[in-house]
Design a protein that fits this description.
With about 130 residues, the chain is mainly β. The chain is built from one helix and eleven strands, in the order E-E-E-E-E-E-E-E-E-H-E-E. Strands 2, 4, 5, 6, 9, 10 and 11 form a seven-stranded mixed sheet that branches. A four-stranded antiparallel sheet has the order 1-3-8-7, with no helix packed on it. A hairpin with a 6-residue loop joins strand 5 and strand 6.
């Protein structure tokens, strides 16, 4: 059973940067489509970014495109989310997730059409002046 553990959350000022990490055990991440999701207080969970395990393509939510970068280190079996130019609206609990389905591309996960099978417990990001 794949297990995911997030880290790297914390406090940041607007315009600042954070890098989230997601360590995996019980499986290798390059066999899965993987992604980052977030849930702000009082809001529904939303897709942030994903990396397809089938064709290596990435998809970003419009709200983070150009500011966030998803990547994977196969040697470390770890997923990352580099977050730059942070905004107060980025404040949320961030989750990493993985799914073994073999779709081409991964936009359906960010859009909420497809669901991930494996989830971490989340790491909190707070952005404020």
């Amino acid at each position: 059973q794949l297990q995911l553990v997030e880290s790297g959350g914390g406090l940041a000022q607007p315009g600042g940067s954070l890098r989230l990490s997601c360590g995996a055990s019980g499986g290798t991440l390059d066999h899965y489509t993987i992604g980052w999701f977030r849930q702000a207080p009082g809001k529904r969970r939303e897709g942030v970014a994903c990396l397809s395990g089938t064709d290596g393509t990435t998809t970003y939510a419009h709200s983070v495109e150009g500011r966030f970068t998803i990547s994977r280190d196969d040697a470390k079996n770890t997923l990352y989310l580099e977050m730059n130019n942070l905004e107060p609206e980025d404040t949320a609990l961030y989750y990493c997730a993985a799914d073994g389905a073999r779709y081409f591309g991964c936009s359906g996960y960010v859009a909420g059409t497809y669901n991930m099978d494996y989830w971490g417990k989340g790491t909190l990001v707070s952005v404020f002046s």
